[in-house]
Design brief:
Blueprint: E1 4-7, H1 13-21, E2 25-28, H2 38-48, E3 51-54, H3 58-64, E4 72-76, H4 83-96, E5 104-108, E6 113-117
Parallel strand pairs: 1-2, 1-3, 3-4, 4-5
Antiparallel strand pairs: 5-6
Amino acid sequence: MSLRILADENISFSMVSLLRNHGHHVIWIMEGQRGLSDREIIEVCREENAILITEDSDFGEWVFAHKEKGFSVLFLRYNQSDLEQICQALLNVLEKYKDNITRKFIVITKNKIRIRDLF
């Protein structure tokens, strides 16, 4: 099953390409929507029914402090030297949770994956 993904500006072209090559529909902010505010990105996620992939920790604040609802976040935390491992972990998460990824805040690091349900 192909997932709709919104890739934030901070997501690399190589990661976007990888996701597309694995059959996911990726909307990349860098392709025509540069400079959107966080709130606008959230709205695009809702409108497109897409999962946000980001390296921006501010989205944790939007979800947990401001109680924004109606979208899912995959937050990537890694060093550039760990990019290959993070990419594989991301693909694994998308495959494993493809049928149950809505309303989740997922943090992917080199050594751990944390999943929190959002309501």
